[in-house]
Design goal:
single chain, alpha/beta, Rossmann fold, 2 domains, six-stranded mixed β-sheet, five-stranded antiparallel β-sheet, 9 helices, 36% helix, binds adenosine-5'-diphosphate, P-loop_NTPase, Amino acid/amide ABC transporter ATP-binding protein 1, HAAT family, nucleotide-binding, AAA+_ATPase
Length: 249
């Protein structure tokens, strides 16, 4: 429904670095329950836009609305608490720590479910049960007790995804979910993102057009900080301006 209020909306969002516009007047609408891809040549402003959405950068001008509320200028922790979680491209895993302990730590964090200084055994059991559910969801349930350092690259990326899901986000931001992966892991990741996207809203950045075409309901193409084109994958890939932007890279 084009008339439904979007879950995420940006209005003329702009970020300048010393007068240079990395993101320029970007107005996005992401409908609840959809998968939305951000693509564009290097330097297009995708990372900067993600950093604005998560509060890691403050916009120079413009607005960000989430669930109809203005979240412009809020801090990263506040935004995470409101339900926007980001899965990072750069890993922040502890090699010696088990998978289930990673998940329990994320669940017990201030932005995770039910932060309490004092925890009853029942609460600890809930963390453990939820941790196991999340590991099962990303296909790592049978490795719960293993150290994160023992995982293959694709499995580490799946663990990072589970950690983002631990925040029970309404909106999941995925930063190049298939970066550095071989064909097999790419296809596994496509299936995994489809699965975790059920009942959630996802915005992702990826350079792999097979991934974009397989996952995205809507694609926004950025170039030089601006929206160059928007539509379905079929629409944007046949757009002359998009073809020119990529050929000119
Ligand atoms: P993408 O993720 O699409 O490759 P980025 O958002 O990383 O693009 O960068 C967009 C533009 O903004 C680039 O020209 C980049 O050099 C510039 N940029 C990004 N971050 C900064 C910063 N902290 N200071 C100055 N320029 C920046």
């Amino acid at each position: 429904e084009a008339t439904a209020a979007p879950l995420l909306e940006t209005r003329s969002l702009t970020k300048e670095f010393r007068g240079f516009r990395a993101v320029s007047e970007v107005s996005l609408r992401v409908a609840e329950g959809t998968i939305h891809a951000l693509v564009g040549p290097n330097g297009a402003g995708k990372t900067t836009l993600f950093n604005l959405l998560t509060g890691f950068l403050a916009p120079s001008s413009g607005q960000i609305l989430f669930g109809g509320d203005d979240i412009t200028g809020k801090q990263p922790e506040q935004i995470a608490h409101l339900g926007i979680a980001r899965s990072f491209q750069i890993t922040s895993l502890f090699d010696q720590m088990s998978l289930v302990d990673h998940l329990e730590l994320a669940l017990a964090s201030p932005t995770g479910m039910g932060y309490r200084f004092w925890r009853s055994n029942a609460q600890l059991r809930r963390f453990r049960d939820r941790a196991m559910e999340l590991l099962d969801e990303v296909g790592l349930g049978d490795r719960a007790g293993q150290a994160a350092g023992s995982l293959a690259y694709g499995q580490k990326r799946a663990l990072e995804l589970a950690l983002a899901l631990a925040l029970d986000p309404r909106l999941l931001l995925l930063d190049e979910p298939t970066a550095g992966m071989g064909l097999e892991d790419v296809d596994r990741t496509i299936a995994l993102v489809k699965k975790v996207a059920a009942g959630r809203t996802v915005v992702f950045v990826d350079h792999n057009m097979h991934v974009v075409g397989s996952l995205a309901d809507t694609v926004t193409v950025l170039q030089s900080g601006q929206v160059l084109a928007e539509g379905t994958y079929e629409q944007v890939r046949n757009d002359e301006r998009v073809i020119t932007a990529y050929l000119g890279q």
